[in-house]
Specification:
The chain has nine helices and 21 strands. Helix 2 packs antiparallel against helix 3.
Amino acid sequence: MKRTVTIVVALAALAGAGYWYYRYSQKPAPPTVTTAAVTRGDIIETVGATGTLQAVTTVQVGSQVSGNIAFLGADFNSLVKKGQVLARLDPSLFEAQVQQTRANLAQSRANLTKAQSDLERNRVQLVDAQQKYNRARELAARSLLPQSDLDTAKTAVDTAQAALQSQQATVTQAQAAVNQSEASVNQSQVNLEHTVITSPIDGLVISRNVDVGQTVAASMQAPTLFVLAADLTKMQVVANLDESDVGRIRPNQVVTFRVDAYPNDTFRGTVTQVRLEPKVQQNVVTYATVIDVPNNDLRLKPGMTANVNVEISHATNVLRIPNTAIRFRPSNDVFTALGQTPPEPQGRGFGAGGRRGSGGGAPGTPGVAPGGPGGATAGAASTSGQNTAASGGGPATAPNAAAPQAAGGGRPGSGEGSAPLAGGGRGGQTTARNAAPSAGGDDRQARFAQRMQNMTPEQREAFMARMRERGVDPNNPGAFGGGRGGNGGRGNAASADAQAGAGAQRRSSANAPQPSAASGPSTIDALFAPLARSETFGRAWLYVEKKLQPVRLRLGISDGQVTEIIEGDLKEGQDVVTNVVLPGQTTRPATNAFPGFGPQGGRGGFPGGGGGGGRGR
C-alpha cells in the first residue's frame, strides 16, 4: 500500500514538473505586425453627392381655355418645331361665342348711329330756338313784343341746349358700348385661337399628359398638356451637397459621375452654380449645386440619378501613405510585447512646446530662441558654424555667435543652412543666410516655387512686399528663414515681424482679389475666395529591427484611402505599420493615443512648419 502511494506521489510530482517546464519554458509568440508600402502616384480629393439629371431648358405647355381634346399632333419623344400644332380643343363653343359677340357689336353700332342722328336733330332745334330768341329780343327792344313772349323764346333756347347735352351723353354711352362689344369679339376670337395649342420652342416632347377626348379644365390654373426639352445635348445635374461640404465647392470645378444605366462609364461635367437657397429635410441642411454636363450622344436621360464626385484638389505624382497607417496608434500592451518602454502621455503636438502661438522669430534672424512656459528650456548653445538644438527646440545657426535654444522652438526655415528639428513646438527658428546649405535645401526650394505658383498674382505681390519689408530678398528662396514663428505660449518674446509672419495665411485670404463694382459681377459665385491648400500634421510608425519607430509627417490632400505626404522621413516603397495584433487577439487592440513625442504640453510644432510654443500644463 505504501509503495502504491509512493508511486502515485512520484508520478504527480513528475507531471507537475513537466507542466511547469512546458508552461514557463516556452517563449510567448511575437505580435503580428501588418505593414503597407508608401507609394507614389496621383491623389484626387473629392466630395460625393447624389443628384438628378435634367434638361437645361424645360418648357411646360398648357391650355388657357377649357374643352375637349379633339386632335393631338405630337407624342412622346416627338421632335417639334416652334409653331407646330401640338393639340386642338373642340372649337364649337368658342365659335358660338364669337358669333354672339359679333351680333352684340352690330347692335351696339346701330344704337350709336341712332344716337348720333338724334344728336344732329337736337343741334338743329337749338339753332332754330336761338334764331327765334334773337328776333324776339329785337322786337322787344322796339316795344313791339311783350316781355312774356321774350321769356318764352329764352326758355326754348335753354331747353334745346339741355337736350343737346343729354344727347351727347347718349352718344358717348353708345360709343362705349361699341368699344365693349369690340373687346368681347376680340376676347372670344382669342379664346377660339387658344383652342389650337402650338409649340413655343424647337425641342423634344418629354411628357404627354392628355389623350383625344379628354376634357381639359382651366378654370383655376392652366393644366400641363406637354413637357418640352429645348436641347438634350446639353444637360445639367442638380446635386444636393451637405452643408459641411458646400464650403469647398467653387464654380468651374471638375465633376465626375456615374448613372445606373451605364455602370461602367464615367461622365464628366463642371460646376456652374451653388445656389444659396437652403433645403432642410429631417434637420439636414443641403444646398443645390448645378453641374453642366455635355450629352452629345444622348445617352443621358432626364430624371436619371447621378452619383456625383466633385474634384476639390488634385496632386500628381506625389508620395502617398495609407490612411490606416496614419490612424494606427500602438497601445501599451503592444510596446510591452515588443520589449519597448511605452512613451509617456504627451500633448497633442509633435514635440515639446505647447499650443501654437502667433509670434516668434523673424525669418532670417540668426540665433533666435522663442519659447515660453509651455516648453522645457535647455542651455545648449550654438557656436560658430554649428547647429545645436535642445530637446523640442529648433536649430539655429549663428556664425561666430552663441544663442541659447528653448524648447517650443518652431520648425526650421526652408532657407540655406537649416537642419531638421529633433522635435518641438511650432516656434519660429531661422538660420543665417551664409550658413552651409542643408541636404533638403533643393526640395524646400522646389516646394517654395510650387507654392508661389499656386498663389494668385495679388497674393504673390503682397507676399513679396512683406518679405521686402523684413529685409529679405524675395527672389532668393534660400533666404527665407523659419517663416511663421510662435509666441512661446505665454512667453512674451515675440517680434512684430514674426506676428506678421504668423498671420500671413489669414492676410493672404483677406488680400484675395475681390470683384469691384465697376467690373459688375452678375452672380455671387464670382465673389467666392479661392480654396486654400489643405495641410495637416500626423505621424506614422516604422517597424525596424522588431521595434516601433515614430515618423513625423506633414500631410496634404486625401482621397479617403491614401494621403499625400508633403514632408517627412519616408521614401517610396518603405513599409509603415498599419496594425499590430497581439497573440490570442482576433481584432485590433484598443488604442492608447499618444498625440506627441515630447514632454506633456499643448499642441507642438513640426519640422519645417510654422507656429510656436504654447501653454504648457
